[in-house]
């Protein structure tokens, strides 16, 4: 695509970008197919158009504006293709997803304040697609009339209005955490502090994550990536983003606090609590935790506005709330999934030793199957109670998988839960073990999709619930 000439100045470049956005908006009213895809694109661009005048006259913005203009030329051609009668091959939902991804990528080159303002307005104006696989946006699903007229009615946000994260000042973060006084723990991407957020006369227990330092630009990139991933996500088994702050020298995310710690805490038996943990004593509670997280991953892979690969599924990133419901957390290294999910290249392999998909580690190409592998490791932890890596750096996969494959599941089962004597309970646990074996296949293409994992765990839990009271 042809770029604009350099040296025009930010004001002139903003004018040209604004013109092509208006052109796309006008053309979208004429489309014959993919009306919902066009409507989403138009609403996304309308937010950008509103924010363009806020850009400062900074020469460093000329290159990002040129990149954005080139991508908008692609978007323009795509919308025009949807007007014609014969351009079936070019007018595809995955093409719209790709161009939306490029626009978002281009925006990440702009100042952080501009990028986050666009992200916030997108959520506030409810311009996220329906909660279904984006591939389900089909021709003819929109009612008659112009695309823009029906966009608000047909495109509904995953977020309930009460669930939208808000922006905090640093003073509010200081007050909530008593100046970061109580450290809860440290994850891959940052330290987490306990806090109490006072809003509207109510007090909310929160966990405040302060991102690790990776150089100023690296930290900004990490903040933007995590915010972009989390902002549109809303699922009952995903740790909820309550608020965020970008005022301080290090960006901050605020989540609902989970009162019962992590799945790893309870499997390790090192909490030191006087009351017994239901995770330690009950197969039902363990399987419920597994099923909840598998549903969260299914949402990320297939149902979210933009599919997400978590890249760091571990028992330490599975949080348990006061009712022992599981929540997937720590999206610091998550990536937005490219169309097709055939594996996308990444600059570096990240994750936690013992959980990392060996194919991803070897090829530096990540896919949804990488999350499936990591969940398979968590399944082994749940079955055995053992950590993912022993003190001698022997992985749980290498020590346990051969035993299960030889049909000796009983030899590795954790002895703490009351196994009982019924064949039905053993059948359920064997179902989980067999599913773990499938998830841990060396080749990603041989692993089951998360929908199949959910089905298997649901069946196992039904059996366990019928026998465990």
Automatic annotation (TrEMBL):
GO biological-process terms attached to the record: cell surface receptor signaling pathway
Region span, Disordered: 129-156
The organism of origin for this protein: Lolium multiflorum (Italian ryegrass)
UniProt-annotated binding residues for ATP: 209
The entry's keywords: ATP-binding, Nucleotide-binding
A GO molecular function held by the record: protein kinase activity
Biased composition (Low complexity): 134-155
Record SUPFAM superfamilies: Protein kinase-like (PK-like)
Record-linked PANTHER family: PROTEIN KINASE DOMAIN-CONTAINING PROTEIN (PTHR46146:SF17), SERINE/THREONINE-PROTEIN KINASE-LIKE PROTEIN CCR4 (PTHR46146)
UniProt cross-references to PROSITE patterns, sorted A to Z: PROTEIN_KINASE_ATP, PROTEIN_KINASE_DOM
Protein kinase domain segment(s): 178-462
Protein's recorded name: Protein kinase domain-containing protein
């Amino acid at each position: 695509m042809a770029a604009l000439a350099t040296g025009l100045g930010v004001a002139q470049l903003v004018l040209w970008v604004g013109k092509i956005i208006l052109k796309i908006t006008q053309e979208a009213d004429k489309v014959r197919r993919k009306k919902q895809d066009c409507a989403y694109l138009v609403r996304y661009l309308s937010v950008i158009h509103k924010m363009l005048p806020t850009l400062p006259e900074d020469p460093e913005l000329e290159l990002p504006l040129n990149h954005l203009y080139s991508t908008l030329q692609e978007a323009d051609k795509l919308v025009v293709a949807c007007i014609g009668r014969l351009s079936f091959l070019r007018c595809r939902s995955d093409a719209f997803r790709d161009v939306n991804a490029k626009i978002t990528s281009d925006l990440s080159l702009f100042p952080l304040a501009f990028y986050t303002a666009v992200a916030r307005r997108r959520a506030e104006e409810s311009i996220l697609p329906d909660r279904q696989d984006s591939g389900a946006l089909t021709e003819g699903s929109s009612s008659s009339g112009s695309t823009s007229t029906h966009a608000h009615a047909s495109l509904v946000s995953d977020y309930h209005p009460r669930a939208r994260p808000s922006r905090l000042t640093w003073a509010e973060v200081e007050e909530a955490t008593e100046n970061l006084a109580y450290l809860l723990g440290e994850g891959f991407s940052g330290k987490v502090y306990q806090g109490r957020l006072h809003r509207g006369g109510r007090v909310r227990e929160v966990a405040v994550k302060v991102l690790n330092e990776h150089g100023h630009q690296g930290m900004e990139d990490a903040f933007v990536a995590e915010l972009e991933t989390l902002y549109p996500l809303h699922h009952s088994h995903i740790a909820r983003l309550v608020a965020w702050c970008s005022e301080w020298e290090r960006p901050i995310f605020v989540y609902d606090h989970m009162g019962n710690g992590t799945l790893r805490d309870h499997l390790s038996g090192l909490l030191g609590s006087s009351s017994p943990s239901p995770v330690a004593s009950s197969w039902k509670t363990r399987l419920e935790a597994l099923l909840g997280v598998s549903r969260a991953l299914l949402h990320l892979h297939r149902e979210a506005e933009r599919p997400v690969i978590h890249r760091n599924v571990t028992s330490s990133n599975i949080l348990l709330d006061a009712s022992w419901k599981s929540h997937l957390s720590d999206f610091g290294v998550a990536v937005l999934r490219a169309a097709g999910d055939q594996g996308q290249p990444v600059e570096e392999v990240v994750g936690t030793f013992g959980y990392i998909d060996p194919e991803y580690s070897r090829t530096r190409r990540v896919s949804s199957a990488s999350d499936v592998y990591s969940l398979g490791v968590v399944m082994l932890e749940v079955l055995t109670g053992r950590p993912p890596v022993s003190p001698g750096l022997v992985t749980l996969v290498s020590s346990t998988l051969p035993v299960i494959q030889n049909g000796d599941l009983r030899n590795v089962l954790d002895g703490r839960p009351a196994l009982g004597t019924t064949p039905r309970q053993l059948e359920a646990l064997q179902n989980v073990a067999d599913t773990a074996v499938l998830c841990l296949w060396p080749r990603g293409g041989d692993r089951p999709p998360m929908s199949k994992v959910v089905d298997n765990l649901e069946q196992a839990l039904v059996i366990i619930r019928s026998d465990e009271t």
